[in-house]
Amino acid sequence: MSQDLTTAPQGAGPEPTVGLRRSGALRQALRRPAIIIAGGLFIVICVAASLGPFFAGDPNAFNALERLQAPSLAHPFGTDNLGRDIAVRVLFGGRASLLVGFAVGLVSVAVGSLIGIAAAMFRPVDLLLMRVVDGIMSFPIIVLALSMMAILGPGLQTVIISLSIVLVPSVARVVRGRALVVSQLPMIDAARMVGASRWRIMRTYVLAHCVTPVLVQAAIVFTTAVLIESALSFIGAGLPPDTPSWGASLAESRNYLQTAWWMWLFPGLALLATVLSANVVIDGVRDVLDPRSARR
User: Fold this and answer.
1) pLDDT digits over 7-42, tens only?
2) Contact 142/124 with Cβ under 8 angstroms?
3) Closest of 86, 95, 76 to residue 252, by C-alpha
4) Which of 36, 79, 247, 264 fits a 20 to 30 Å CA distance from 275?
5) Residue 61 burial (CB count, 10 A)
């Protein structure tokens, strides 16, 4: 017993085992065709949305003589009701949507994980933090996002801040639940007995065992942020009108559903492919990291 207590906080405890198990799980995930296909599609979308705008033209360039043209060699995705190239607008819209998704995911996971672990390890503040979290989660996401947009005003940064505030509570709630389970494990008691600080326990043990739920929540937050941003832009409450967005492109196509099918098809496919590929990847990785979830 004394040998176990001595070696626990010095790195010979669960860290190498967790790291090796996670590394082997990721190698196993890369052998699954669904993960490879979905991951490849997601990477292609990210690369196209990141680099495409540098080689494309102006997404807001009007050309009345080329309005509502079907897909052709000159315009692979056709043109919209104002003569703008839809392919260019899809690329620029993808950059905005992915930027919102990644930024909101990063902020929500970082802040939510901090709140969740703090609530689990510092029980006197647990009640206060969780009541705030419950209060925010009691509002519908769209309604709360619209309220934040009305307070902060339109803009890309406003969308990121608003969605981060809305989606942090869901991450905090999941991380807190996992951290409470980990805090009751024997290795935590052993680390405390040999004098490990609370900060070391949180960083080395608790946080390491929260990686799997954090990964899942990161993907959920990303896809949710992309969908909410598109929904807000669809109703005109998201990005500014001069900023291309998949949601705004879908809104502009409502009056041309039958006469100009390409106006809604390509932005809709881009949005669907992004959300679907991200969900397939994270579901596969989650099943590999936590085989019990695949058997449920």
Assistant:
1) 344 443 444 444 445 555 566 666 778 888 888 999
2) no
3) 86
4) 79
5) 12
Cβ neighbors of 184 (< 8 A, separation 6 or more) are none
Tell me the CA distances in angstroms from 185 to 203, 206, 210, one per residue in order. Answer: 15, 10, 13
Radius of gyration from C-alpha coordinates of the chain:
23
**Which DSSP letter does residue 205 get?**
I
Task: With a cut of 70, list the residues of the chain below it in pLDDT.
Answer: 1-30, 189, 195-198, 203, 289-296
pTM: 0.80
Q: Which CATH superfamily is domain 2-295 in?
A: MetI-like (1.10.3720.10)
**Each residue of 107-132: b (16+ CB within 10 Å) or e?**
bbbebbbbbbbbbbbeeeeeeebbee
